[in-house]
Amino acid sequence: MSSIRLRLLAWLAGPIVFVNLAAAALAYLLAWAPAGLAFDAALQEAARAAARDPLAATHPARRADGGELTWVAVRAGGRVLAGAPGLPPALPEGAVGDAMLDGEPVRHTSVRAVADGQPAVLTLARTVRQRRQVRAAMLRGLVLLESVCSLALVGLIWVSVTNGLAPLARLRASLDRRDSVNLAPLPEQDMGHELQPVAAAFNALLERIAGASRAQREFQANVAHQLRTPLAGARLQLEWLAERHRGDSDTAAAVTRLLATNERLTRETNQLLALARAEPSQPGRARFAPVDLARLVGDGVQSFVERAAARDIDLGFALAPATVDGDVFLLRDLLDNLVDNALRYTPQGGSVTVRCGAAAAGAPAAGAMLEVEDDGPGIPPAERARVFERFVRLAPDGGATGSGLGLAIVRDIARLHGARVELGDGAGGKGARFTVHFPALRT
Amino acid sequence: MGMRVLLVEDDAVLADGVLRVLQAQGMQVEHARDGLQADARLLDDAFAYAVVVLDIGLPGIDGFEVVRRLRARGAATPVLLLTARDAVEDRVHGLETGADDYLVKPFATPELVARIRALARRHAAPATRLALGHLILDGDTRRAHIGARPLDLSVREWAVLEYLLRNAGRVVSKQQIIDAILPWGDDLSLNAVEVYVSRLRLKLIGAGVAIRTIRGFGYMLEAQAA
Fold first, then answer.
1. CA distance B19 to chain A (A)
2. Which residues, other chains included, contact A440 with Cβ-Cβ below 8 Å and sequence gap of 6+?
3. Same domain, B8 and B117
4. Does B106 sit behind a cis peptide bond, omega within 30 degrees of 0 on the bond before it?
5. Exposure string over A401-436, b if 16+ CB within 10 A, otherwise e
């Protein structure tokens, strides 16, 4: 049995119910003994009454009264003077015995009498029907009472056990509620003595996991940083080569491909870094400060415009001041990835618009919004939930190469800011529109 | 003779790339491989360099320390930090230590060149003669030319064009243009900027430059491919 509750219940309820039943058996015996004596006393009384006029009492020798059959016989020296034949031999005066008469159990007793002036013995036998009825009623009552009591006990024990195990249940519920990245320690003080060592051991484990995950993130960030210097070197060398071999189309094409690869490696390195930074378990809120989204976009405009110009995409802005509480570097990562995503999936000659401002009237969160809209192929509604998963890339797009991490980073960073990312159609049902709804500033 | 630039970078491939790129721009580049070497050169003759391009992660003493020592000696030579990290601490620390600008690796050739030129320009006396494509603005004579052809500009048009030219290749917002051409807080609407720009576009036909509109944001002056 693996449930502690069921184990406790079995160990508590089993013995208690057993003791209860034993007590009931004893109660039955104790209650029945006086009842039996009373019946016997009545039998003896009837015999004594009959002995006052024995011969009259034998007419009839067998009579029915009160549901019982009664036999009377007067005997002297082994001979039946009057009454029913076949009664059991007389017992000593005052004794009561059991016998069978006409196939039915009876109790019988004998008293001295005088019949026709001679000493004789009067024997009286009576069926035990009433006794049986009384006994059965007693037994029924006891069984019923004990069943009810046992059930009540089991119920009470169940409630008590559940109550006693409540700290365990709370612990489980609090663990169930956690998301996969919450590695905060369990509060040890508000659980019972017995659970504290368990919680402490669990917290030690959490600490080790958090440490390992921190080390992994630091490693990830380190690698990403280390990669930047050689990437920078390769890029400058390639750009120099491209300039030098501008006239040689074969070489120029190869160098362009190498530059594209370099750019892709750079982007993925940056995403790796952003991912390490946006890890929800990072205690990042410490760096939160008011950030103006319009300024954030303004700071990034140069690089967005360069990227858009390279693909002949019309990049536009509609910026209104909107302050959110956040980490400016993470928000820059979020914006970069949204714009990068839009620029990559919008065909040449398309258009991309970045907007920010106060949330539209009637929006669910009365905070700020940041929006990137394109007129590219858009994302079918059925695929919309999936695009935020890591390494998911939709459609083998023409030449667009992504790691599939960008939108996962967007989602992680939005989540860290208590923001919600909404994905809809672009203007006129064409393209895609990503809207990040930020919560209202806490004043 | 081109401007002298001191490059401090320990990564051989990157250093070689920067050298080639800057030399191709006509700059005279000297290379130091570590912090101590750079510090020694700057101790000798800091004023010989128009700009120092300085990596942060260096063997010996790091880039921050090189800047700190340079500034401690009172030298104002502009410093462009190259950093592999974009963490806020690094940027703030670098600028607090006395660096003038930073560039996160990897960077594109034009970006590197533009930053170096901007630093050199900011440090040197403001240039009076600006040129891009066939367009020439001579601040001394207040004359503008497209090639040999004189170009008539109003005062405001001149101011807008000069600002765009000083920031060629960079996106500037309409508000930045207003702030730059109206230093005394006169009132000018964003629409007025649009009017000046559209007039300038007409006047700049054939100048080999183009004003790109960044919808809803501002403009960028670029040289047009011939």
1. 9
2. A365, A366, A367
3. yes
4. yes
5. ebbebbbbbbbbbbebbbbbbbbbebeeeebbbbbb
Residues B88, B8 share a domain: yes
Contact B137, B153 (CB under 8 A): no
Mutation target among B111, B171, B213 for the A interface, most CBs of A within 10 A: B171
Q: Which residue has the tokens 């360099």?
A: B49
Domain finish residue from B123, B152, B186:
B123
Cβ-proximal residues to A166 (8 Å cutoff; 6+ apart), any chain: none
Q: Looking at the 3D structure of chain B, how many domains does it have?
A: 2
Alpha-carbon distance values, A443 to A72, A310, A323, A327, B108 (Å) = 106, 43, 12, 17, 42
Q: How far apart are CA A66 and CA A73, in angstroms?
A: 20
Q: Helix, strand, or coil here: A66? A: coil
Of B61, B95, B123, which residue is a domain's last?
Answer: B123
Q: Give A-chain residues touching B57 at CB under 8 angstroms.
A: 229
Residues B73 and B153 in one domain: no
DSSP 3-state helix, strand, coil percentages of chain B (rounded to 5)?
40, 25, 35
**Nearest Cβ partner for A229 among B11, B88, B109:** B11
Integer angstrom CA distances of residue B224 from A47, A177, A220, B118, B207: 141, 60, 42, 21, 9
Tokens of A363: 């929006």
Write out the residue range of the structural domain in which residue B107 sits: 4-123
Q: Does the beta-carbon distance from B84 to A239 stay under 8 Å?
A: no
Those residues whose C-beta lies under 8 Å from the C-beta of residue B17, and which sit 6 or more positions away, are A232, A233, A234, A235, A236, A237, A240
Domains and CATH numbers, chain A: 4-159 (no CATH), 178-282 (1.10.287), 284-437 (3.30.565.10)
Residue of B nearest to A313 (CA): B214
- Residue among A229, A246, A261, A306 with most chain B CBs within 10 A, to mutate: A229
Rounded to whole angstroms, how far apart are CA atoms A438 and A423? Answer: 14
Shared domain for B170 and B110, answered yes or no, is no
Threshold 0.80, pTM exceeds: no
- How many CB atoms within 10 Å of residue B173? 19
* Closest residue in A to B217 (Cα–Cα): A317
Nearest to B215 among A225, A287, A316 (CB): A316
Structure tokens that stand for A86 in this block: 């076949």
The pLDDT profile of chain A, 443 residues, written as one tens digit per residue, is 468 888 888 888 888 888 888 988 898 889 888 888 999 999 999 889 888 888 888 888 888 877 888 998 888 887 888 888 888 888 888 899 999 888 889 999 999 888 888 888 999 999 999 889 988 998 899 889 888 988 898 889 889 888 888 888 888 888 888 766 677 777 777 777 888 888 888 889 888 888 888 888 788 878 888 888 999 999 999 999 998 888 888 898 899 899 988 988 888 888 888 877 776 555 555 568 899 999 999 988 888 898 898 888 999 999 999 999 988 888 988 999 999 889 988 999 999 999 999 876 655 557 899 999 999 888 888 888 888 877 666 655 544 556 677 888 898 889 888 899 999 888 888 889 999 999 887 65
Q: Looking at the structure, do residues B59 and B81 belong to the same domain, yes or no? A: yes
Please report, for the domain that includes residue B96, its CATH number.
3.40.50.2300
CA distances for A286 relative to A157, A197, A253, A416, A437, angstroms: 49, 31, 48, 12, 21
* ipTM over 0.90 threshold: no
CB A41 within 8 A of CB A32: no
Question: Which CATH number belongs to the domain containing residue B159 in this structure?
Answer: 1.10.10.10
